[in-house]
Design a protein that fits this description.
The complex is a heterodimer of chains A (311) and B (352).
Chain A lengths: L1 H10 L5 H36 L18 H7 L2 H33 L5 H8 L1 H4 L2 H12 L6 H7 L18 H24 L3 H10 L3 H29 L3 H6 L11 H11 L3 H32 L1
Chain B lengths: L3 E10 L2 E11 L4 E5 L6 H9 L6 E6 L2 E2 L10 E4 L11 H11 L4 H15 L14 H13 L5 E5 L7 H18 L2 E6 L2 H7 L2 E6 L2 E6 L1 H6 L4 H6 L6 E8 L2 E3 L5 E3 L10 E7 L5 E3 L5 E10 L4 E7 L2 E7 L10 E5 L6 E3 L8
Parallel strand pairs in B: 3-8, 3-9, 6-7, 7-8
Antiparallel strand pairs in B: 1-2, 1-4, 4-5, 9-10, 11-12, 11-14, 12-13, 14-20, 15-19, 16-17, 16-19, 17-18
Helix pairs in contact in B: 2-3, 2-4, 3-4
Classes of the chains: A mainly alpha (311), B alpha+beta (352).
Chain lengths: 311, 352
């Protein structure tokens, strides 16, 4: 009965044509503002950027702009500076993430214990994160500068340096400058997220474990770490992608020098685009970086899935 | 197994004192229940025995040796938590064997201990499961299994049944009692549920306001409560209390109604006392004697009926097995059998 009534009703839909259209398009209209925003500010630039990679676009050459196919990628495959930047990116990302994570975890464990003035300290710990990366880079560049900064004199005093020089201009150690600045700047991210995860661990688990006979380290291994594992996986993944993309500190502190010793792929893109003004080539490098990071993310997600499925 | 002595134990957080001089002597193999309303300090006392809270003053001895300064892991006790506190990343067997693995016990021994405990608790089919995949009752069993595999000197239970539904609680209560009869392990059990306390305990320790109110067997506490707190806390529905004036060897209510007593009380004429009588001991008088009371409410429990009465403005409950009580209304008469009357002095202490 109801079915016949339904089909009949549909066949003889007597609502005006415009009303029917309005009803049909209702969900699309609701989602339109955000969709339009995403398309305009994300997808369109992405597509344009990708298209640049296949075109010859040099700001200083008014006759450029033509389609050149894979020419940029051919150049790229023979560009020693690019391979150097790739190696530096691995080094920069690896050292930064590992150190940020390690110190962030230590800080989170310390802040998890109640002590007088903890609220204030927790707020202060977050401070570096609030400093614009550009300012942080300038500050650290000055700290490493023997003319105005104290660090080279301290290192010299400790006997770690022959003379109070600027490590940012030392080809062997220059990368450590931006890495140290990056670690300082990024610790709060790990500290705060790990602290939040730590505080979600039920206290009586620790009590049960201590009655079961576990010492501090055994409790850490069998309770804290398993509870933190999902947070660690996701934060390390995020930070790895962000840091490998993060050229601010390097551009501000060393500009990729000395002799490209601190040039990472992201800063190499910046140099190609805004110093050499070769947007086409810069876009081609960016595309390669995008593919590499996508591959890395997929790998981590797969790993996470297999780990979760094992449970 | 071991005896536990607690001497002049005090606990304070800053200026706030929560335990005031607790003395307790727990014999080897005894099942002690600490009972009291929330905030009475019973859980704090248990946690101090476990070593999870520091001792402010006084001494705890397990097996004759002082343990105040020992870490929980060095006290050789096991504890069952209200939340069960199972390790979510280990399966049931892993949870139960954790303490043995930490002690580097031989693999065969661990396997035997876990298998033994699992068969005792009916956990064999669940050994590979994670706690997440267990029901409340099963988690409860795993928590108990984790405690018994270690064969510790003493078991501590911190309201272990509070998170279970009523039916399951009844069942687990019986199982805990059976397990204790089986293992004969010294046990200290904290609960706010007086039924659990009555049914499980060899001796009950009734606590209130950080002070031990009475220590004794369940029936001792029921039959001869030491003070108003214990009288009111033990038993359900709770004991009735009436303010009386003592004159000529009998009790008089404010309106002058006379209640006969078994024997004269050792107080001066005209003293103000509190008379206590359990609802199940009061009777409804049908022969014209007794004291007039107004029926306010009747609660059938199935087994019997709880009548809420008003005796000259004072609320009084009567528990009766007589189903006729359900149809009673208006004015009835109740009597107070003299052999069941408890008398408490002005400070709330038992008189005889």
């Amino acid at each position: 009965m109801t079915m016949t009534a339904d089909t009949l009703g549909r066949r003889h839909d007597r609502r005006p044509w415009l009303t029917r259209l309005a009803h049909a398009s209702e969900p699309y209209l609701y989602s339109a503002p955000s969709l339009i925003l995403i398309i305009v500010v994300m997808l369109v630039p992405l597509v344009i950027g990708i298209s640049y990679a296949f075109r010859d676009i040099q700001l200083l050459n008014p006759f450029s702009g033509g389609f050149i196919g894979l020419e940029h990628f051919r150049t790229l495959s023979e560009d020693p500076a690019f391979y150097g930047a790739l190696r530096n990116t691995l080094w920069w990302t690896g050292a930064s993430v590992v150190l940020q994570f390690f110190f962030g975890l230590v800080l989170a464990l310390l802040l998890d214990k109640p002590f007088w003035g903890r609220g204030l300290v927790q707020a202060l710990v977050f401070l570096p994160w609030a400093v614009p990366s550009f300012l942080a880079g300038l500050n650290w560049a000055w700290l490493f500068n023997p003319v105005i900064g104290p660090i080279p004199h301290w290192l010299f005093g400790l006997g770690l340096m022959d003379q109070p020089g600027n490590i940012l201009s030392d080809p062997h150690y220059a990368m450590w400058g931006p890495i140290i600045a990056n670690v300082w700047w990024g610790i709060p991210f790990f500290a705060i997220t790990l602290l939040a995860a730590l505080q979600a661990i039920p206290r009586d688990l620790y009590e049960a474990a201590s009655i079961d006979g576990a010492n501090w380290f055994q409790r850490f291994l069998s309770i804290t770490l398993p509870f933190l594992a999902p947070t660690i996986a996701i934060t390390v993944l995020l930070r790895t992608v962000w840091i490998s993309n993060f050229a601010d500190l390097i551009v501000v502190m060393t500009g990729g020098g000395p002799a490209d010793r601190t040039q990472i792929v992201a800063s190499y893109i910046f140099t190609q685009a805004f110093k050499a003004l070769d947007f086409g080539y810069a876009s081609a490098i960016a595309l390669v970086l995008l593919v590499l990071l996508l591959a890395y993310s997929m790998l981590i997600i797969l790993l996470r899935q297999t780990l979760l499925n094992k449970d | 197994m071991a005896s536990i002595q607690i001497e002049k134990l005090e606990k304070s957080y800053g200026h706030v004192s929560v335990l005031h001089g607790i003395d307790l002597d727990i014999r080897d193999g005894e099942f002690i229940v600490l009972v009291g309303p929330s905030g009475c300090g019973k859980s704090t006392l248990l946690r101090m025995i476990a070593g999870l809270e520091d001792v402010s003053r006084g001494e705890i001895r397990i097996d004759g040796s002082r343990v105040n300064e020992r870490h929980p892991k060095d006290r050789d006790i096991a504890m069952v938590f209200q939340s069960y506190a199972l390790y979510p990343h280990m399966n049931v067997a892993g949870n139960m064997s954790y303490s043995l693995r930490l002690r580097k016990t031989a693999k065969e021994k661990i396997g035997a201990a876990v298998a033994g405990a699992a068969s005792k608790l009916g956990l064999e089919p669940l050994l590979e499961r994670r706690p997440k995949a267990l029901s409340g009752g099963q988690r409860q069993r795993v928590a108990m299994g984790r405690a018994i595999v270690r064969e510790p000197k003493a078991f501590l239970f911190d309201e272990p049944l509070s998170n279970l539904d009523a039916r399951l609680r009844e069942q687990m209560r019986a199982e805990i009692k059976k397990m204790h009869a089986d293992l004969k392990a010294t046990s200290i059990y904290v609960t706010h549920d007086q039924i659990e306390a009555m049914t499980l305990a060899d001796r009950i320790v009734a606590m209130h306001g950080g002070v031990v109110q009475q220590v004794g067997s369940p029936l001792e506490l029921y039959d001869r409560p030491a003070n108003l707190f214990v009288a009111g806390f033990i038993g359900s529905p709770g004991m009735n209390f009436l303010d009386i004036i003592y004159r000529e060897g009998a009790a008089f209510l404010k309106d002058g109604s006379r209640i006969a007593l078994k024997s004269p009380a050792p107080v001066t004429e005209g003293s103000n006392l509190t008379l206590g009588i359990r609802p199940e001991h009061m009777t409804i008088a049908t022969d014209g004697t007794g004291i007039a009371a107004k029926v306010e409410l009747a609660e059938p429990t199935g087994f019997g009926i709880i009548l809420h009465l008003s005796v000259h403005g004072v609320p009084v409950k009567v528990f009766t097995l007589d189903r006729q009580a359900l149809n009673m209304g208006g004015e009835i008469a109740v009597s107070f059998p003299a052999q069941h009357i408890h008398l408490f002095d002005g400070e709330g202490r038992r008189m005889d």
